[in-house]
């Protein structure tokens, strides 16, 4: 719990974390991070080496849920045979929620993910046409 509070304080002070509505929500994000970390290591093994967000790969996905209040996006991607990953659905916090409320379940998107302040989050998203 102390770690969560320190992460929140540091992230908010640096402007890297969206404010959480409760400690319970922060604890939930902390609990799903191990799976998110495994996911990003498979999808993007070089995720810690990029100097710029522009270098990160785009991952095609479908929006399954939009939590505007908490700044989270639930996405589903098909299997990624190149990295041996099955199709899955996961929720991620988003770095910025500009135009976030325009997304809806069923939208086809591309996302970029990164470790931002110790939290795996969606750093960019765009509609897939």
Describe this structure in words.
With 129 residues, the protein is an alpha+beta fold. It contains 2 helices and 5 strands. It has helices at residues 2-14, 23-43; strands spanning 59-67, 72-77, 88-93, 108-116, 119-127. Strands 3-2-1-4-5 form a 5-stranded antiparallel β-sheet. It is globular. It starts with a helix and ends with a strand. 16% of the residues are buried. Residues 1-21 have low confidence and may be disordered.
Beta content: 25-35%
Poorly predicted runs of 5 or more residues: 1-21
Largest sheet, order of strands side by side?
3-2-1-4-5
Summarize the main sheet: 5 strands, antiparallel
Under CATH, the topology can be stated as OB fold (Dihydrolipoamide Acetyltransferase, E2P)
Overall shape: it is: globular
Mean pLDDT value: 75
The CATH architecture category equals Beta Barrel
Helices and strands: which structural class?
Answer: alpha+beta
Q: Distance between the terminal alpha carbons, to the nearest Å?
A: 43 Å
By DSSP, the count of extended strands is 5
Rg value = 14 Å
How many domain modules? 1
What percent of residues adopt helix (DSSP H or I)? 25-40%
Question: How many helical elements?
Answer: 2
Organism: Methylobacterium currus
Signal peptide: 1-26
Protein name: Copper-binding protein
Pfam families: CusF_Ec
